[in-house]
């Protein structure tokens, strides 16, 4: 009878339904706004075969009678969440030793969690969240070694977290957030090696350092310790939590630097360490992580703001409240970083940034060797303007995307232009061709072809030579596959050089090395 619009006081004479084993009245409009709304519970005492009682998401009010403890010892599931039940949770509920699932969330229960819940040895799921429970978490809950899920967040619980919670050897998630819990986090909590979904201790009054044992939670996906009074350094052992997807440490008193071990968190997509006392520079390894959201605001970080990875998307990160930062994209409004003098041999030689590589300024000599035909924008701007950061420079389609965001001209921008040139040569398609739009670029076109069939994107003239070479090689017993590999390698170089983020582009020295390998392979076929 679930998911209907039945309303009013529930007056069914359940006492006559002695053999009933399943009652589901959830998602209705029952309730009379009277204190004895749940009086019918007493009549269920005769239903000795009852296994499931589902009364969740109705409008039941009043108190839960102590007679609930007289229900069948075979009862496995009680669902009463999403009502307006008030008063204490009866201690007699501890008589229902067959219970496996007990969700009572989103009610108006007051008083403390009955310690008799510790008698429910078969209980695997307990949800008392979003109520108004107070007092301490009873130590007896630690007796429930079968627990898989424990949710008691958004209450008024106080006192320390019982160390007995470390007895839950099968626990998948633990929600204790949004209470008034105090004291240090028991080390036993970090012995819950089965935790794989979430450990949420946020919005409490926990203090002290974060135990190094936190690194033992190898399977954990989400760790939320936000808005407590935790202090000291962030333990480097956190880098051992290799399955972490989200890490929230904001609103604490952590100090020191971001641990270098965080570079091991390969799957981390969200990191919030804002509103702490952290210092030092922003680690470059953050550029190479899979972060989709990063909040470093209101700390004491200094030095240059990276520009790759998550930092390339200004809406994906925040660095507010760090007055000693510099650099980054112009839109951040930070001062330029002071250049450190470097008198090594290589640094004394000026690096020439062309800034406008395109087909029209690439010339071929009699031996078909390519030469840059002019000095591009470097000639126009001169050495004193190589770091100019105003306007979009270069030719549309060939200019690096970061220049459109006000980034300084760098050799990485020339690498991007080179990559586009390589792809244009191999495909015969200009980056501004009509087939390309905001959803499909020359770079993306080539990237997709690499996953399928490379020869399908080659320029018609290359394909013609390719087919002729294959025929000749078959006649001579040559390795045709080597040509395919060389073509694929060349396109991969073009794709790698034209990556959107500057930090993900191939280093030009490696480009030269790989092109030399391609040439050597072709010469020796």
Describe the structure.
The structure is a single chain. With 525 residues, the protein is α/β, with parallel strands linked by helices. The protein has three domains: 1-101, Ribonuclease Inhibitor (Leucine-rich repeat, LRR (right-handed beta-alpha superhelix), Alpha-Beta Horseshoe), CATH 3.80.10; 134-338, Ribonuclease Inhibitor (Leucine-rich repeat, LRR (right-handed beta-alpha superhelix), Alpha-Beta Horseshoe), CATH 3.80.10; 345-523, Transferase(Phosphotransferase), domain 1 (Orthogonal Bundle), CATH 1.10.510.10. Helices cover 17% and strands 16% of the residues. The strands form six sheets. It has a ten-stranded parallel sheet, with no helix packed on it. Strand 26 and strand 27 (370-372) form a beta hairpin. The longest helix is centred in the C-terminal third of the chain and has 18 residues, at 480-497. The protein is elongated and about 95 Å long. The protein starts with 6 loop residues before the first strand and ends with a helix.
Features:
525 residues, alpha/beta, Leucine-rich repeat, LRR (right-handed beta-alpha superhelix), Transferase(Phosphotransferase), domain 1, 10-stranded parallel beta sheet, 8-stranded parallel beta sheet, 27 strands
How far apart are the first and last residues' alpha carbons, in Å? 76 Å
Strand content: 15-25%
CATH superfamily of the largest domain: Ribonuclease Inhibitor
Task: Count every beta strand, where a strand is a DSSP E run of 2 or more residues.
Answer: 27
- Describe the main β-sheet briefly: 10 strands, parallel
List the domain count as a whole number: 3
Can you identify the CATH class of the largest domain? Alpha Beta
Residues in helix, %: 10-25%
CATH architecture of the largest domain: Alpha-Beta Horseshoe
Placed side by side, the strands forming the largest sheet appear as 7-9-10-12-14-16-18-20-22-24
CATH fold-type name of the largest domain: Leucine-rich repeat, LRR (right-handed beta-alpha superhelix)
Shape: elongated
Query: For the residues shown, what is the average pLDDT?
Result: 84
